[in-house]
Amino acid sequence: MSETIKLHYDVDGENFESAGQASHSVKKSLRQLGMSPDVIRKVAIAMYEGEINMVIHANGGVADVEVGDDDITIILKDQGPGIPNIELAMQEGYSTAKDNIRALGFGAGMGLPNMKKYTDDMKIDTVIGVGTTITMKVNI
Amino acid sequence: MKIGDIRELLDAELLCGEDMLDHDVYAACCSDMMSDVLAFVKDQGVLLTGLVNPQVIRTASMMDMVCIVFVRNKAPSEEMIELARDCGIAVMRSASRAFEASGILYYAGLGREVEDV
Ligand SMILES: Nc1ncnc2c1ncn2[C@@H]1O[C@H](COP(=O)(O)OP(=O)(O)OP(=O)(O)O)[C@@H](O)[C@H]1O
Ligand SMILES: [Mg+2]
Questions:
Q1: A115 vs chain B: nearest CA distance in angstroms?
Q2: How far is the centre of ligand 1, averaged over its atoms, from the C-alpha of A53 (Å)?
Q3: Containing domain of residue B19, as a range?
Q4: pLDDT, one tens digit for every residue, chain A (140 residues)
Q5: Domain count, chain A
Q6: Contact yes or no for B49/B56 (Cβ under 8 A)
Q7: Kind and range of the H or E element at B103?
Q8: Looking at residue A59, which CATH number applies to its domain?
């Protein structure tokens, strides 16, 4: 078994402009590792959606990515407000984003469903007032 | 269609990606909603948009797009252009409106090259 590669990032919740830097860096690293374009795209899109969510809904957090032999695990952890109703949040088109977020091109309520679509496994742990941890896996 | 053809058809100003003008593209999408681009786009190489912020470049990069056209003469910042360069994305801007620019490219065959042309 080869060694697991671990990547860690702080996601700045104050800065919308820099959101996506972690996903961008992961994309580059996976390319360097010679992963298939299909796998890279799945990881990049799912992680980017999650990273944007952390910035616009949860004031930032941390992102960890582990590249194993069989899959890639993405863990996004924030200390935001939590998600009161996961079932509702997972529905396409459901969003609590205000007009200021929409003016930036986000807030269509497509992120969480899209993350589910692009990953082979997705788990949401959330506690109101404490934060949200989203764990996603993409098979290699 | 080539990226260079898009520049000519839209009378656009190329802001980066001089080395990509010979690159073939087959389909495009037009949206100001990056959420929708991330959710609905598949294998479209070109993004036309009137939205200007760095997330436009990042979204296109995540989707493996190769060309962004800013319509209505919207001007991306130097940081955005630098980011696009780093992502290997050609960026241009055109005075055309989104509807007009889309129509011109579609009429010229982009997105329907399998049908005829
Ligand atoms: N990390 C999070 N912390 C708190 N709430 C969240 C978090 N992620 C998502 N949500 C909630 O779930 C809703 C749906 O999220 P989703 O990503 O699907 O849509 P969106 O972010 O509102 O819009 P889009 O992703 O299309 O830009 C959000 O509007 C928000 O209320
Ligand atoms: Mg979202």
A1: 9
A2: 5
A3: 3-107
A4: 567 899 999 999 999 999 999 999 999 999 999 999 999 999 999 999 999 999 999 999 999 999 999 999 999 999 999 999 999 999 999 999 999 999 999 999 999 999 999 999 999 999 999 999 999 999 99
A5: 1
A6: yes
A7: helix B98-107
A8: 3.30.565.10
